[in-house]
């Protein structure tokens, strides 16, 4: 997963600036039930529009999806290794194929970069730092790489230089408000990743907290995410999750 390109008509947006930490509370919602992908995207689109208009607060929404694949704007057919295994959803975020499913914590991040600084690199770096510091709280050393996206864990017992991906990051910007976000593998079915080349990166594996031998629950990950978020981005206020009418 990767970021979209900033709008070309915005002068100076690539200048290096620190992402601002705001004192205004960010709403923080957690869905206990599985959320369908299209419903989640529809909600995000509407919420981002409201944030851009100043009609709603920023929001971080934590959830799980049923098993599915998403295809970003750079996805190629060759990277879908088992067509028909799970539904494939085309999405406006940057990047290639990724998997979502139960046991994976998805964090959809709807933050207003008009107020926090229109610096995409700083924003992605802040998201990466958020994940890495959260993992560090469980004694897991997550790292980034300049030649591939996501957060990685070294696996020396598998061989020299072997690294597995534990978290993915992919965003889209609409009127400089972010959509999509990140996912951390807590206890997903890792075999489900076999149906794709995750994020178009071959030659590396996928891992999870449980795969690393850590019996950590989603609730524990959520608490760690909240604590680190407040340090990096600003205070949060709990809010009920979106409610969807069954199809």
Polypeptide structure, described:
There is one protein chain. Helix content is 21%, strand content 26%. It has helices spanning 37-52, 113-116, 120-136, 218-232, and strands at 26-30, 59-63, 68-71, 88-90, 97-100, 104-110, 143-145, 148-154, 163-174, 177-185, 205-206, 236-238. Strands 1, 2, 6, 7, 8, 9, 10, 11 and 12 form a 9-stranded mixed sheet that branches. Strand 8 (148-154) and strand 9 form a beta hairpin. Helix 3 packs across helix 4. The longest helix is centred in the middle third of the chain and has 17 residues, at 120-136. The protein is globular, with a radius of gyration of 17 Å.
| SSE run | EHEEEEEHHEEEEEHE
How large, in whole angstroms, is the Cα Rg? 17 Å
Please, what is the average pLDDT?
Answer: 87
User: How many angstroms separate the termini?
Assistant: 29 Å
Task: List low-pLDDT spans.
Answer: 1-16
Structural class by sheet pairing and helices: alpha/beta
How would you name the oligomeric state of the polypeptide chains in this document?
single chain
Strand content: 25-35%
What is the percent of helical residues?
10-25%
| Main beta sheet | 9 strands, mixed
What is the number of beta strands? 12
In one word, what is the shape? globular
Please tally the helical runs, counting DSSP H or I stretches of 4 or more residues: 4
């Amino acid at each position: 997963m990767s970021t979209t390109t900033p709008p070309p008509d915005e002068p100076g947006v690539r200048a290096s600036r620190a992402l601002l930490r705001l004192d205004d509370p960010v709403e923080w919602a957690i869905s206990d039930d599985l959320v369908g992908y299209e419903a989640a995207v529809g909600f995000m689109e509407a919420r981002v529009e409201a944030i851009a208009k100043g009609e709603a607060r920023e929001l971080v929404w934590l959830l799980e999806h049923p098993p599915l694949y998403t295809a970003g704007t750079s996805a190629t057919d060759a990277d879908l290794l088992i067509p028909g295994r799970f539904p494939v959803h085309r999405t406006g975020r940057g990047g290639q194929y990724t998997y979502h499913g139960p046991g994976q914590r998805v964090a959809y991040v709807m933050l207003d970069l008009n107020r926090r600084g229109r610096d995409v690199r700083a924003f992605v770096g802040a998201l990466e730092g958020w994940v890495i510091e959260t993992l560090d709280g469980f004694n897991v050393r997550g790292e980034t790489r300049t030649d591939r996206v996501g957060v990685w864990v070294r696996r020396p017992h598998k061989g020299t230089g072997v690294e597995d991906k534990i978290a993915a990051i992919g965003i889209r910007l609409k009127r400089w408000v972010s959509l999509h976000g990140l996912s951390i593998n807590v206890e997903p079915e890792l075999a489900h990743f076999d149906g794709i080349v995750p994020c178009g990166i071959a030659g590396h594996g996928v891992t999870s907290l449980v795969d690393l031998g850590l019996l950590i629950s989603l609730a524990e990950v959520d608490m760690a995410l909240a604590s680190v978020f407040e340090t990096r981005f600003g205070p949060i206020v709990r809010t009920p999750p979106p409610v969807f009418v069954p199809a």
